[in-house]
Write a structure and sequence with these properties.
The chain is 58% helix and 0% strand. The chain contains nine helices and no strands. The relative contact order is 0.12.
Length: 161
């Protein structure tokens, strides 16, 4: 079984995106109060490509057969193609990806509180909840610090609990 989802749908509605994954695995959808943040995403210009419209246009033309095939596959699997794919948009068309920051500490704090509430609703023992709270707090801090230093967060996420 294969579930095909477009990245554009993740940006448009993260809750719906992750709920589709959960439902495809036979799990219930995520509650509406769960908010999914964006982490380990490096914003800003990574290269000068967005400034070179001639090269960008040439690359889009060069990869047009791939765009067409990808559109066909997505349409066949999901019944629709995102406007982003139809218009052949890249991150160069998303100003929010070219400036700003990923996630502030206040957003991380809010997400930690939501996780804690969810865990309480799952009736975990207080010691398990305390341990999880400490691990989430530590990981959130580490990820925020790494992000602020411009470092990849992959090695933090690969650590076993």
């Amino acid at each position: 079984r294969l579930l095909l989802l477009e990245q554009a749908s993740l940006r448009a509605d993260p809750n719906q995106f992750y709920s589709e994954i959960a439902e495809s695995l036979g799990l219930p959808p995520f509650p509406d109060y769960i908010k999914f943040g964006r982490y380990n995403a490096f914003l800003g210009h990574r290269t000068e490509l967005c400034h070179n419209t001639t090269l960008l246009s040439w690359l889009k033309a060069k990869f047009e057969p791939e765009y067409l095939e990808l559109s066909r596959i997505v349409r066949e699997a999901t019944g629709a193609v995102s406007p982003e794919l139809e218009r052949r948009e890249t991150r160069c068309n998303r100003p929010e990806d070219l400036s700003g920051t990923v996630s502030s500490r206040s957003e991380a704090d809010l997400e930690r509180k939501i996780i804690e509430q969810t865990l309480r609703e799952c009736s975990l023992h207080e010691s398990e909840l305390r341990d999880l709270r400490e691990r989430v707090s530590s990981l959130t801090y580490d990820l925020t610090e790494a992000n602020e230093r411009g470092q990849s967060c992959d090695n933090y996420l690969a650590k076993p609990p």
